[in-house]
Amino acid sequence: MPQLVRFLIRHALIGFAVAIGFVALFLALDLHGLRTLIVQSPEGLLAAAVLFFAMCLTFGSVQMGVAVMLLPREEDDEEPRGGKGARFRLRLRPAQVRVRR
Predict the structure, then answer these.
(1) Which of 5, 15, 29, 50 is a plausible cystine mate for 63, CB 3.0–4.6 Å?
(2) Residue 91 domain-assigned?
């Protein structure tokens, strides 16, 4: 398996673990009466499963995004690689403005 795929899977699993811990703590503390609502509802198991799935998806995606954004840049990214866009450089010059007194 390629190294980048393993990197992404590892960080997705870290996000899943954090999400499971977060939801478990949220339900254990019965914040806003959510655990009570899930226990008393006839569809409580489905609600808990959807909550776990949504949180795992969200936290896993965020963890993967943060891990990718924190990757070090390669040294050769500073140099233009060619193509049509490399010829045109934007050169900013200060504009002279007349001021009336």
Answers:
(1) 15
(2) no
